[in-house]
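Hello,

I think I submitted the FE2/S2 (inorganic) cluster job twice by accident. Can you confirm which output corresponds to this input? Input:
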Amino acid sequence: MMANQVQVNDTSTMIKTIPYRLYTEPQVLKEEQEKIFARSWQFVGHSSQVQKQGDYFTCEVAGEPILVVRGKDDQVRAFYNVCPHRATKLEKKEEGNKKILQCGYHGWTFNLDGSLYKAPNFKNTDSFCEGEACLRSVRLEMEASMIFVNLDDDALPLAESYGDFFTSLKDVEFLGELKKVWEKKRVIKANWKAFIDNYLECDHCPIAHPSFVATLDMSQYSIVACENYSVQGTIVKPDKQYGSVELNKAEFQGGRFYWLWPNMMVTIYPGSGNMTVIQMVPIDHETTLGVYHVFFRDENLTQEEKDLLAFMEQVRDEDVELVELEQIGFRSRAFKEGRFSPTEHGVRQFHDMIREALDIKA
Ligand code: FES
Ligand SMILES: [Fe+2]
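Support: Only one job matched these inputs. Its output is below.
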């Protein structure tokens, strides 16, 4: 689990957080969409969602409509979900299975590899079957059964973008067996970065999460900053348990909580195989859609798994309340920025990356 650590900038000027205006100004989000979300790998789904040829799902990345589909050659591809004829959004449903993709406006049809099949309002389709008349493709890569897309054709390959993150997952032997069993979306009245900040430190845990600190040994809690990601965790106190089921001593690892630049989190708790992928997707500069994808081995949850879900929900509710209160303060004229404690180095890493991406000196 221990990864190649990176040094977080430790000079005195960096003790301050990024300016609060970055949480409250609409034009900052526009810049972030362009410079951060359109240039980073974004998790869009799990391989179990496109198991059969023709399986597809739609999503949004950096405000762009995206379509992911498994072709007749078994390759999973991503396209802009936009018709090349006159821009209509092609697939409207969230998921399904299709032999051919059809635009609902003038009936152009496309093969699952994105090539044009027929354009009924053009007599001769031959000249359309290449280039402009095909769906516009988007880079897609899969690691550890997770599907990512990147709108930037020049971005580093996925496996090279996050240091040894994917290698560190190799000892999680159940990853390939997981199925998406639950998805929850919730609207959070705070800037997307506020929730990432909250996730990246546990100074607030003793105050805000009594059940969390009652279960985990906080004296052993650590956060390790790695290349474009960080990992945090500790061990479970020997006499404690998650939910109602006693953990066996061999599983006294308290789980691992990853963050991946810019807005993705992966949590793996001990006990039966589980993983939650969390994304903070900006709706506007002061509103965020929290998307929680929960994976277990089976849709029929055991009592232990139901207890774990309830435990995660409770911790999440506690965090959402805090970041919504924080957003009120970001808008105030009282302070222009905050300060980092020595144990908030995970947040400092995130803020250093925000400064670099947006070219901010303060
Ligand atoms: S806009 Fe799609 S066929 Fe015309
Ligand atoms: Fe928290």
